[in-house]
Amino acid sequence: MPSAYTILFIIIVIIAILTWIIPAGTYATDKAGNIISGTYKAVSSKPQGIWDVFMAPIIGMVGDKKTEGAISVSLFILVIGGFLGVVNKTDALNEGISSIVRRYKGREKQLIPILMILFAIGGSTYGMGEETIAFYPLLIPVMMGVGFDSLVAVAIALVGTQVGCLASTVNPFATGVASQTLNISPGDGLGSRLLLLIITTALSIIYVYHYASVIQKDPTKSLIYDQRAEDEKRFAIKARTDDDHQMTGRQKTVIWLFGLTFVIMILGLIPWTNLNSHWTFFDTFTKWLTGIPFLGNLLGHDMAPLGTWYFNEITMLFLFMSVVIMWVYHMKEGEFMDAFMKGMADFLSVAIIVAVARGIQVVMNNGMITGTVLHWGEMGLHGLSQSVFIILTYIFYIPMSFLIPSTSGLAAATMGIIGPLGHFAHVSGSLVITAYQAASGWVNLITPTSGIVMGALAIAHVNVNVWWKWMLKLMIYLFIVTCVFLGVAAVL
Fold first, then answer.
1. CB 285 within 8 A of CB 305
2. Residue 153 pLDDT
């Protein structure tokens, strides 16, 4: 498979070719910029050429009159990368997991639900994925040391995080990018996504726990039993499970600050007054705080209350908390900048891919075919029930997630079309986002185009065919549960 960049650029070229074929058309919009159903009209054709194809990713980043740029999303992705780089520099996340493992020594089976819930929260809130690679060398010897196998260790982190991504709540790389494309708050639909997160996480925990119980009683039931002796030597089971290194006080503080950052982000993104017009606590508190003499000037009178935040505010939050962690951990300025810049570098590809994907929307909008495609969809949706539409949307995103493994790239490339189609079918934009996220998370549990999947299996020395065989039933369960959930949510 070519890289996601190449796939997206090929799509840009194909879309440019289609602007020569598909008739141009446009819709009228309301004051908020929402398309008004039934107002489609044909306009003069505007085919896109070579210049337009290569300009598309650039305009996708900075924006123009017809397409909003991805710069705010890309900058946030870079800053959160820097934040994670600073946190990882303290080694607090690794030591936090180690501390939990030591605390439950002798009761390791209880770790399965605890760790999977933690990993699911990470996947749901900030798209945790590649960060789990560091945990496998720790989890594998512990799980094998109590009679499980490396499949259980891989499943705890990989299934945990990707099920979390499947039911992303405020994941900036999925929920955030998709919400920005549809001009809605990432907090819209949060309640239903929390319910989906609970259901799918519980289902996954039961699946992994059952397999672990079976092979603990009879090790020959393991799908990789033939390599167990070799794995025991390879992972030095006895030596690595006897590690008694303790977290430092500073690392514990970093863990608390790490969690607090995401709590604040969630509180900032939830549109409290939209949920209930009487929930004005944060507005009132912010107004009072900024009105205090001197303190108001010191903090800044333009401080936005929680519940009204968007990408600018949450980007500032992660930048600020990075500095706080530097100060708390007594990190030198040089070490901080090195960790922050390396963290940003790790996420540079994600930030750029958002702009490249937005280039698809640029070519469609400038070629004046977006309205025509929406019009065809509007006509095709006539008489289609809400439940059928959302389930078909979920199924549509499954092959698309395979072709474009990047959740942020997929959202930026397609949500500008699928979201308005949902509007025509009387399905909320937040539920369309839920369907897209569910498909992306589902595919990324097994796809060989995912570096997370292949990296985890390489560390555990598990063949991908064995992983597919082990995952088959869980994939079927998750697919059925998600379809039922989406179908019911569409009519409520």
1. yes
2. 92
